[in-house]
Design a protein that fits this description.
Elements: H1 2-12, H2 18-35, H3 39-51, H4 58-64, H5 67-73, H6 79-94, H7 107-118, H8 127-141, H9 145-158, H10 163-173, H11 181-192, H12 202-213, H13 219-223, H14 230-252, H15 257-276, H16 282-293, H17 296-304, H18 315-336, H19 369-376, H20 384-401, H21 408-435, H22 440-450, H23 455-467, H24 474-493, H25 499-512, H26 514-527, H27 532-538, H28 544-558, H29 575-590, H30 596-607, H31 614-625, H32 635-641, H33 645-651, H34 661-673, H35 677-695, H36 701-725, H37 728-734, H38 738-743, H39 749-770
Helix pairs in contact: 2-3, 5-6, 7-8, 7-9, 8-10, 9-10, 9-12, 12-16, 14-24, 16-17, 16-18, 18-19, 18-20, 19-21, 20-21, 20-22, 21-23, 24-25, 24-26, 25-26, 25-27, 26-28, 26-29, 29-31, 30-35, 31-36, 32-33, 35-36, 36-39
Length: 771
């Protein structure tokens, strides 16, 4: 035994786990020798173990060997007593119910804790003092620290006005806990309300938002405890898009009236079901609480994990973000946006030092405000007051932007801000107007800013609004379908007799969605020319913005590349172009619509060598200035044309167009302001030959002759308009001499003489007066 003990002692020096292995071996030998009836082997085993007691600790042997063997070895006094003690310990460990320190089990300690937290905190009581008292209570009554933290959060929920007390208290308390403990307790609270009809209290959202803002918990850790999952949200968003497209398909199908009524009733029932009780979305609830306390950074992180505009499509979120924007723009709006003499309702600032800083200057808008507006998107429609404030800020910025005295650095900043303003207009303001229900005031407010933009920028925005915006969001898809459906209803019933009531309906529809409405009306005018007069008369209830949009829609309809400008026989101009030209002349004469875009369009078409659109200029000049081109004149008309302007107007034309003074002045101003008078004259003069030598090769001879005559007639008509409406000084200043016309501009000689004739007449009259 001694030899074995010495060998094992040598081996232990090389292996640290040797005692444990020896104990296992002794355990197996113990079982084997106890089963054998040979007493000698049992005695030898006992002597071996006794010799190795210095190699294996008593603790290991007590774990592995039987109590009887341990008693024989002298390691324990009595095996029976050892067995009883072992059973008691195991029962306590495995079978006895563990106490969780519930409130009713230690009611005195928790009662004192609640009394400590619920006392009046208005005096000299600080969070440090309360924390020391809480520590004493935990030690005295053996309270569970996690349960204590849970109670602190509960009391904080009930006393939200004491942020400055509870936040430092929780922050200090967290030094005694694991970092994740607070997040797990909050997550458990949220999970408690995730039952089918559970409703998470607003107070819990607020507490979670404040703790997030003070970085006491991480958003990523709390986010996983909230329902619904991101996948469920994405599925819901896709379903909404699918439903919107389904509505569009149903509206475009031809359905019998009885079936249509049934469909509408079903849709109404579905909408009512949705409105009854929306499922509790904890992520949106937390987001709303963040926006209310001004925690934009974390709110932005949550919105980034959702589909675009999903969060703000829920009205409480949109209103909370709108309220935050009110606070953000308040100082700047008070300085530059409030109308003279108006007081307005001041917006108090957030009582939160961690909230974003409000904008004091236009440059500050780029930091947070524009970003917030982009997240809000079309749902700015929920707050028309904020909509008007943003527009007034835009208008004030444009006044500053148009000043010439800015330095180069300031100018570059201004250019960046102007680009941002255009983006906000495209992504937020125009889509929001589409979702507003017939708000003429907002339309006029928008025009107040739009009229400061060049028409090129305005038309680009209208193009985006009409062709792209309505496809970006389920609500806008539905609105587009509803507007077209309503426009069809009105246009089917529009006649000369019911112009007033139909005009009012058109006006109401146009306040929010002019692009869609006018696109449909113009498509009907192109098909049915008998609609031109009633439509023109019915447009008197539009806003200034709507008239500008109408001008854009007309130009877009004229520029449609899918429509042929000739009829199938290739000898006459298409009837849709003639109808649009006639409509242009009538509508531009009757209403104060800006002409610059249309005139520039005609000039661009002439530059491109296309003379079909001269028909538009011809109609506009004829209706607005009363100057008519007659193909077959009577002798009396020819004689009248030799007289002055009054005799020409009275006897020279078949149509008696009266009261053209205002409209002809508007046409003249548009031509002079945009320097289009001379370019149009020169382009028409050059295009006469272009019709024959450039366009004529592929066209029918009859059509070429008609286009040549139209070009010549329009030139005569336009030249006559300039001669009669421009003062002699203006005419001489703008029209160059005959040699410049011929040599530099390559104007045909007859056209050059025609344009120079008023100047020669003036020179002759001046010379005659001198003599």
């Amino acid at each position: 035994h001694d030899q074995a003990s010495n060998v094992l002692n040598d081996i232990i020096e090389f292996r640290d786990d040797m005692p444990s292995i020896l104990a296992d071996v002794f355990c197996i030998l113990d079982i084997e020798t106890s089963c054998l009836e040979e007493k000698s082997k049992r005695d030898q085993f006992m002597q071996l173990v006794l010799a190795c007691l210095n190699l294996v600790s008593d603790t290991l042997l007590k774990e592995r060997l039987d109590p009887e063997t341990l008693e024989s070895l002298g390691l324990i006094k009595q095996s029976q007593q050892f067995n009883q003690k072992s059973v008691k310990i195991k029962t306590k460990l495995f079978y006895k119910q563990q106490k969780f320190n519930l409130l009713r089990e230690e009611n005195e300690g928790y009662a004192k804790l609640i009394a400590e937290l619920g006392q009046d905190l208005s005096g000299n009581i600080t969070s440090e003092l309360i924390l020391e008292n809480i520590k004493s209570l935990i030690g005295c009554f053996n309270l569970d620290p996690n349960r204590v933290l849970d109670i602190i959060l509960e009391v904080y929920e009930c006393r939200p006005e004491y942020d400055e007390f509870f936040v430092p208290l929780i922050e200090s308390y967290m030094y005694m806990c694991e970092p994740q403990t607070l997040c797990h307790i909050l997550g458990f609270k949220f999970k408690f309300y995730q039952e089918p009809n559970g409703e998470t209290p607003v107070s819990l959202y607020r507490v979670a938002a404040i703790l997030l803002q003070h970085n006491l918990i991480d958003l990523e850790d709390l986010y996983v405890h909230l329902l619904p999952s991101d996948h469920t949200i994405l599925e819901e968003h896709r379903r909404e898009i699918g439903e919107a497209k389904q509505i569009v398909r149903k509206l475009t199908m031809v359905v019998l009236s009885s079936e249509k009524m049934e469909e509408k009733e079903k849709e109404k029932e579905k909408e009512e079901e949705k409105m009854e009780k929306p499922p509790d979305n904890q992520k949106l609830g937390l987001l709303e609480a963040m926006l209310k306390i001004g925690d934009w950074q974390h709110a932005q992180s949550i919105m980034d994990q959702m589909p675009p505009f999903y969060a703000t499509s829920h009205k409480p979120i949109a209103l909370a973000l709108c309220q935050l924007l009110h606070v953000m723009i308040e100082p700047l709006y008070r300085r530059v946006g409030v109308l003279k003499g108006a007081k307005g309702a001041p917006v108090p600032p957030l009582q939160n030092k961690r909230a974003p800083k409000p904008a004091e200057h236009f440059e500050d808008l780029r930091k947070e405000v524009f970003n917030m507006l982009c997240y809000l998107g079309p749902h700015l429609s929920h707050d028309p007051i904020l909509f008007a404030k943003v527009l007034r800020l835009g208008k004030a910025f444009m006044k500053e932007y148009q000043l010439d005295g800015n330095k180069q650095e300031d100018r570059e900043k201004m250019e960046i801000l102007f680009s941002c303003l255009l983006s906000i207009t495209d992504q937020v303001l125009l889509p929001s107007l589409s979702l507003m229900d017939c708000n003429a005031c907002m339309s006029e407010e928008l025009w107040g800013m739009f009229k400061t933009f060049p028409y090129q920028h305005r038309y680009r925005l209208y193009g985006q609004w009409k062709n792209e915006t309505y496809n970006s969001h389920p609500l806008l898809v539905k609105v587009k379908a509803q507007i077209i459906d309503r426009a069809k209803y009105i246009m089917k019933r529009l006649t000369k007799e019911n112009v007033k009531p139909s005009g009012r309906q058109i006006g109401k529809l146009s306040h929010s969605n002019p692009t869609i409405l006018f696109d449909y009306i113009l498509s009907q005018i192109q098909k049915y020319d008998n609609l031109i007069t009633p439509v023109v008369d019915s447009l008197k209830y539009l806003t200034s913005l709507n008239y500008d949009v109408l001008a854009y829609c007309i130009i877009e309809a004229l520029a449609n590349p899918e429509k042929e400008r000739m009829k199938h026989d290739d000898t006459t101009i298409s009837s849709w172009l003639q109808s649009l030209a006639s409509f242009c002349g009538a509508v531009f004469r009757k209403y104060p619509i800006e002409l610059a875009g249309l005139l520039q369009y005609v000039a661009n078409q002439l530059k491109a060598g296309k003379s079909f659109d001269l028909l538009i200029l011809k109609e506009v000049v004829q209706k607005m200035a009363g100057i008519e081109i007659t193909e077959e004149m009577t002798m009396e008309q020819l004689e009248a044309m030799t007289g002055g302007e009054q005799l020409k107007a009275e006897g020279g034309y078949f149509g008696q167009i009266r009261n053209t003074k205002k409209s002809s002045q508007r046409l003249k101003d548009a031509l002079l302001d945009h320097d289009l008078a001379l370019p149009l004259c020169l382009l028409m003069a050059q295009q006469r030959n272009g019709v024959i030598f450039q366009e004529g090769g592929e066209k029918h001879l009859k059509l070429v002759g008609k286009l040549y005559d139209q070009c010549h007639d329009t030139l005569v008509q336009f030249g006559g308009f300039l001669a009669s409406n421009l003062s002699t000084e203006d005419y001489i200043k703008r029209v160059p001499s005959i040699d410049v016309l011929c040599n530099e501009f390559h104007t045909p000689h007859d056209a050059a003489f025609f344009l120079s004739r008023p100047m020669y007449t003036h020179h002759i009259s001046s010379k005659y007066d001198e003599l």
